[in-house]
Amino acid sequence: KKEMERARRTRPSGPIRYRCSFRNTVYDVLRARNWKETDSETNWDIHWADRDWVYEVFDSMHLESWQRLNHYRNGRELCRKDLMIKNLKRKRRQLEKEGSFEEAQGYNFFPVSFVLPREYAMFVEEFKRQGGVWIMKPIGSAQGKGIFLFSRLSEISEWRTDFKSKLDGNSQGQDQPQVEAYIVQRYIMDPFLVGGKKFDLRLYAL
């Protein structure tokens, strides 16, 4: 009954109301459209929110049918590198378990991947089996920060030593910060290029 009542609601009359957590190009575009800016937590038509607001507020509120937000619930399950890999692998295993092997093959589009330090032993086993060039990426960084290539295990010895020292410190009850987690993937040696250069596409849909 409540869902039917919500479906019958219509947007209040008046100018489009927006809220923006940033002062950037998106904010400039919203202002240029002569829409009405608001700082209300709930009374808006469009909210360009930061991740903290989404994690702290979004999961506990209901959106009206006319409200639009630039994030979706549990978006970090796809946007954070380690969680995306986890979910892709999980879906592939599920399809294989159900006998849908052809559909499962569609989930082979991403390279061999491991989450470190949790899957370090499995990674080393795969590395010793095939070697090659690998790429390390911090799970929570962006804009290419902290990414590096390596082709020998000795090249990540500094990261491994740092992890082991912090692990030993924690086991002895010392207050040590957690070592930063990484995704390690087999490097794609022949990527699709545009004008001889690698590229990525980042699109906003509103």
Structure overview:
The structure is a single chain. The chain is α/β, with parallel strands linked by helices and 206 residues long. The chain folds into three domains: 17-73, no CATH class; 75-110; 111-169 and 178-191, ATP-grasp fold, A domain (Dna Ligase, domain 1), CATH 3.30.1490.20. Helix content is 35%, strand content 14%. The chain is built from eight helices and eight strands. The chain has helices spanning 2-8, 25-32, 51-56, 76-79, 81-97, 101-105, 120-130, 157-171, and strands at 17-20, 36-37, 46-48, 68-69, 113-116, 134-138, 148-150, 182-186. The chain has a four-stranded parallel β-sheet with strand order 2-1-3-4, covered by helices on one side. Strand 1 (17-20), helix 2 (25-32) and strand 2 form a beta-alpha-beta unit. The radius of gyration is 23 Å and the shape is elongated. The model has no long low-confidence stretch (mean pLDDT 85). One of its GO terms (biological process) is microtubule cytoskeleton organization. GO terms for molecular function: ATP binding; tubulin binding; tubulin-glutamic acid ligase activity. This is Tubulin--tyrosine ligase-like protein 9. Belongs to the tubulin--tyrosine ligase family. It comes from Fibrocapsa japonica.
